[in-house]
Amino acid sequence: MRLSWLAAALGVLASPAVAIELDLNNVESIKEAASTIAFGLVRYYTGNYTGDTPGNLPDPYFWWEAGAMFGELVDYWALTGDDSYNAITQQAMIHQGTENGDFMPPNQTRTLGNDDQGFWGMAAMAAAENNFPNPPPDQPQWLALAQSLFNQWVSRWEEQTCGGGLRWQIFTFNNGYNYKNSISNGCFFNIAARLARYTGNQTYAEWATRVWDWEEEIGLITPEYVVRDGVGVDPITGECNNVTNVDPNQWTYNAGIFLHGAAVMYNLTNGSAEWRARVDGLLATTTATFFTAHEDPSVGSIVMFEQLCEPLGFCNIDQRSFKGYLTRWLAGTATVAPHTEPLIRPLLEANARAAARACSGNVPAPEFKGHPGTACGFRWTMAAGFDGMVGVGEQMNALAAVMYTLAARPGAPEPLTADTGGTSRGNYAAQGRTMDRGIAYADISLRDRVAAGFLTSAIVLGVVAGSAFVMI
Ligand SMILES: *[C@@H]1O[C@H](CO)[C@@H](O)[C@H](O)[C@H]1NC(C)=O
Ligand SMILES: *[C@@H]1O[C@H](CO)[C@@H](O)[C@H](O)[C@H]1NC(C)=O
Ligand SMILES: *[C@@H]1O[C@H](CO)[C@@H](O)[C@H](O)[C@H]1NC(C)=O
Ligand SMILES: *[C@@H]1O[C@H](CO)[C@@H](O)[C@H](O)[C@H]1NC(C)=O
Ligand SMILES: *[C@@H]1O[C@H](CO)[C@@H](O)[C@H](O)[C@H]1NC(C)=O
Ligand SMILES: *[C@@H]1O[C@H](CO)[C@@H](O)[C@H](O)[C@H]1NC(C)=O
């Protein structure tokens, strides 16, 4: 936990005043608040400094979280028009994506999962959908980068174990290879659905449907629209015991990534009853599971929380960024499935008010380098506001909470397609580096080993291994 002990000791954690003003009836006020929070976020990033690597966040943040951050900064620009961070975003995405055109940089081999790639891929997809400034013509383009991921995932789809699905990890030597999880398959589903919508090519829609069907068949999406975390693959038999070897835990981002992808499919099918039932079911489960009462009801009746780890305070660095993604995907859902907007709007607005109140931390550098008194905490439920936890995740979540209230309004950006003005050039054949070519192994640091084992959930493998042990 990055609780600021120094600040706590000095008694300067929570200032009673609301440090970030937010009037949700005033677009300029929302943009101003978003700008303040975005500044605090970007001050964590050092990749554009001489000698540093574009696209990497400093320790303890992993590569995937940087991809998530740049995806959010693409949306920040699209929603607010503020292009202050376009240069670093473009530089980072080009540097990380285009070495081999596949978001599979050799430096990240030791921890590279399908989900890690996916967060960068979704940043590229958002860039294509919003006409974010295109890379130079001799570099792989945003759409082609997303297509490259799609093609990689098709090649990694494994029918012979668990009847389908992607494994979490790409490389056999990484911890987590014997685990098929919802976030990896959710990245595939989400990007395939959006590629189908952008290009009109039905092959993408067929794959999105295949991923969804597999998640249901294996029981990772239940008939009640609970999205469970993943299922272990027996390394000897290759079988998946989806009763004893399942991690049933629910995380905000798993629900969100399928909700948004389902909404895109709903839109693509001109509002089919099948996809509508899925959208509405996931939204109902999401609202019931990941929202809880705020201590001060004037903020809103319910606000988002990471129910598994937030109440007891054991969310790890990765998990402390998940709420921001669910927020992003709720806004995306309201955009392409407008019948959900009246349900989603009050959730987004309550989150925005709660998050702005939580951005009142007086935390000194180096832990927070944004405007004094505007550090964002993790919990949004507290009447007092700031809870003392700061970091990239907290800052990203709060930015999402505030800025996505600008989405799904009249005049808000709608995701473009090739037919409605999207300019990104695609490449159906994009594939990138295959697994057996030119892998440079980076040193295995403790950080890498921790990452490989614990990206999604500190308890994932504990549950899976624990169940296996009971069976033996
Ligand atoms: C890095 O980018 C930030 C945000 O745009 C900017 O404020 C800063 O000056 C840049 N640093 C360097 C060394 O280019
Ligand atoms: C890989 O690491 C080297 C050495 O730190 C760095 O120069 C290079 O830019 C990195 N490549 C990527 C894609 O991050
Ligand atoms: C396990 O998978 C099988 C085969 O896909 C499926 O029929 C069954 O319903 C699943 N069980 C659970 C508990 O999800
Ligand atoms: C959706 O509507 C469009 C335009 O009316 C039509 O071209 C397309 O075939 C429809 N798609 C489906 C799946 O019904
Ligand atoms: C599809 O999304 C667009 C916004 O991009 C929206 O105007 C349209 O109503 C949506 N279609 C359906 C069937 O909801
Ligand atoms: C549609 O996408 C698939 C998968 O990438 C590709 O093989 C096919 O050529 C595409 N079809 C057209 C008409 O472009």
What order do the helices and strands come in, and which of them pair?
Elements: H1 5-10, H2 27-42, H3 63-80, H4 86-97, H5 114-129, H6 142-156, E1 179-181, H7 182-199, H8 202-217, E2 230-232, E3 246-247, H9 252-268, H10 273-290, E4 291-293, E5 302-304, H11 322-336, H12 341-358, H13 392-403, H14 446-454, H15 460-471
Antiparallel strand pairs: 1-2, 2-3, 4-5
Helix pairs in contact: 2-13, 3-4, 3-5, 3-13, 5-6, 5-7, 6-7, 7-8, 7-9, 9-10, 9-11, 11-12, 11-13, 12-13
This protein binds 2-acetamido-2-deoxy-beta-D-glucopyranose (NAG) (6 copies).
Descriptive report:
46% of the residues lie in helices and 3% in strands. It is mainly α and 472 residues long. It has one domain (5-471): Glycosyltransferase, CATH 1.50.10. The strands form two sheets. A three-stranded antiparallel β-sheet has the order 1-2-3. Helix 2 (27-42) packs antiparallel against helix 13 and helix 11 runs parallel beside helix 13. The structure holds 2-acetamido-2-deoxy-beta-D-glucopyranose (6 copies). The site of one 2-acetamido-2-deoxy-beta-D-glucopyranose has 8 residues, from helix 11. Belongs to the glycosyl hydrolase 76 family. It catalyses: Random hydrolysis of (1->6)-alpha-D-mannosidic linkages in unbranched (1->6)-mannans.
